[in-house]
Design goal:
- It comes from Chitinophaga filiformis.
- By secondary structure, this protein is mainly α.
- 54% of the residues lie in helices and 1% in strands.
- The radius of gyration is 19 Å and the shape is globular.
Length: 376
C-alpha cells in the first residue's frame, strides 16, 4: 500500500512542473511537490535495489560476473545512504559484498576492460565509508591494473601506456565514466594524487579528441550520433572528476570548460516536458530516462557547487528531476530505459533500441541525482 501511495503521488505530478523562466533565490532544490521529494524517492529506489539479487542485464538467471550497470546502481545507493545518513541501508549495501569475499569470489569481474574494471569503485567506496581494510586491496587492484599492461600486450596498448593513458582506452564516450569513477574512487580511498592525475589526463585527451563544437559527443568517431546515454556517461564522468579535482589542478580549467560547454547544450536540447531523448538532436526519438537522470545529476551538482548559475540552470535541473520521477512505477522500477547499446554506424540502430523497465542503467542515475539533491 505504501508503494502504491507513492506511485499515485508521482503520477499526480503532470501539472506541477515549474516554468523554465522561474527564478529561485537559493531555493532550486527545496519545497518539492508531493511525491517528488528526493529523500523519499531515493530511499524507495535504493530499497528496491538492495532487496534484489545481482542482475544479469535483465536476462534470466544469475550473472557470471557483476556487470557495470549493477556497479553504477550499487554505487548510487551507497552515495544515497551516505548523503541521507541512513546507516541501515549502508549496512545492507555492505552486506551485499560479503559473498564476494568468500564463495562467490568468481562473481568479481576480471580487470581486463573498462566495463569490468569499474567494479573496483564498489570496494573502494565501501572502504571510504567503513574504513575496513578488507575492501581496500580489492579496489586498488582494479585501479592499478587499469594502468598496468597485461601479459602479451598489443602494440596499440603499449602505445597508449607510453602516452600516459590506460591501456583500456577505446575513445568511446562511455569510458569517461567507467575509467573516471574508478580512478577518482581510488584517490578518495588512498589520497594518492596519481589516481586523480590519471583520470584528469585521460579526460582531457577525450575532450580534445571527441567533444563536438556544440559541447556534445558522438558515441565514437565511427558512430557519429548524439546517443543520449553515451552523453550521460560523459556528463556524469566530468561531474565526478570535477568534484574531486583541487582548484589549482593543471587540468581543471580544461575539464570545467568542457563541462560548461556541454551543460549549455543540454539546456537547449531539453524538451518541453523537461526530458532528453534517445538521440539528443532528434526530438522525434523517444524520451529516454537513463540519459535524463545522468544529465539531472550533472546539472544538480553543478548548481550546488556553483559551477553553473542557479538562476539559469536551477530550474533546468529541478524540472528534470520532477519529470524523471514520473517514470518510476509502483514497484520502484524506472521505465523507458534504452537497452544495453553497442556502438554502430547506423542511426536507425539507435532509434530502434528497445525501451525497458527496471534496467539498472536507469535505476543508477536516479540514485545519483537523489543523493546529489540531498547532500550538504
Amino acid at each position: 500500500m505504501r508503494k502504491l501511495r507513492i506511485h499515485l503521488a508521482i503520477m499526480a505530478l503532470a501539472g506541477l512542473l515549474v516554468p523554465s523562466g522561474t527564478v529561485f533565490a537559493q531555493k532550486s532544490f527545496k519545497d518539492w511537490p508531493m511525491g517528488t521529494e528526493p529523500a523519499a524517492i531515493g530511499l524507495f529506489v535504493a530499497n528496491h535495489y538492495v532487496a534484489g539479487p545481482f542482475s544479469n542485464f535483465g536476462n534470466p538467471g544469475p550473472p557470471q560476473s557483476i556487470t557495470y550497470p549493477e556497479v553504477c546502481t550499487w554505487y548510487g545507493a551507497l552515495q544515497f545512504a551516505k548523503a541521507s545518513g541512513n546507516r541501515e541501508l549502508a549496512e545492507k549495501l555492505a552486506a551485499r559484498y560479503e559473498p564476494l569475499l568468500a564463495q562467490s569470489h568468481s562473481l568479481m569481474p576480471k580487470p581486463d576492460h573498462v566495463d569490468h574494471s569499474v567494479f573496483g569503485a564498489i570496494p573502494l567506496e565501501l572502504y571510504v565509508q567503513t574504513n575496513q581494510s578488507k575492501y581496500l586491496e580489492d579496489g586498488k587492484n582494479y585501479a592499478d591494473k587499469q594502468w598496468e599492461l597485461p601479459e602479451n600486450p598489443l602494440p596499440n596498448q603499449q602505445e597508449l601506456q607510453q602516452k600516459g593513458l590506460s591501456w583500456q582506452t577505446r575513445m568511446w564516450i562511455d569510458d569517461m565514466y567507467m575509467i573516471t569513477l574508478l580512478q577518482v574512487e581510488a584517490f578518495r580511498a588512498t589520497g594518492n594524487k596519481e589516481y586523480l592525475d590519471r583520470a584528469a589526463r585521460e579526460m582531457v585527451v577525450y575532450l580534445d579528441a571527441i567533444q563536438q563544437p556544440d559541447g556534445l559527443f558522438y558515441h565514437a568517431s565511427d558512430a557519429p550520433f548524439l546517443w543520449g546515454r553515451g552523453n550521460g556517461w560523459m556528463a556524469a564522468g566530468m561531474t565526478e572528476l570535477l568534484s574531486a579535482l583541487p582548484a589549482a589542478h593543471t587540468d581543471r580549467a580544461r575539464i570545467m570548460d568542457g563541462y560548461k560547454k556541454m551543460m549549455a547544450s543540454l539546456k537547449k536540447t531539453q524538451d518541453k516536458n523537461y526530458m532528453w531523448h534517445q538521440l539528443l538532436d532528434d526530438p522525434n526519438s523517444f524520451a529516454e530516462t537513463s540519459c535524463s537522470g545522468m544529465f539531472t545529476y550533472a546539472l544538480v551538482v553543478g548548481v550546488k557547487k556553483g559551477w553553473l548559475e542557479e538562476k539559469e540552470y536551477g530550474p533546468v535541473a529541478r524540472n528534470a528531476w520532477t519529470a524523471l520521477v514520473r517514470y518510476i512505477n509502483e514497484a520502484g522500477d524506472v521505465k523507458d530505459v534504452c537497452e544495453g547499446t553497442n556502438k554502430k554506424n547506423d542511426q536507425q540502430y539507435y532509434l530502434n533500441r528497445s525501451r525497458v523497465t527496471g534496467d539498472l542503467h536507469g535505476q543508477a542515475p536516479v540514485l545519483w541525482a537523489a543523493a546529489a539533491l540531498i547532500a550538504n
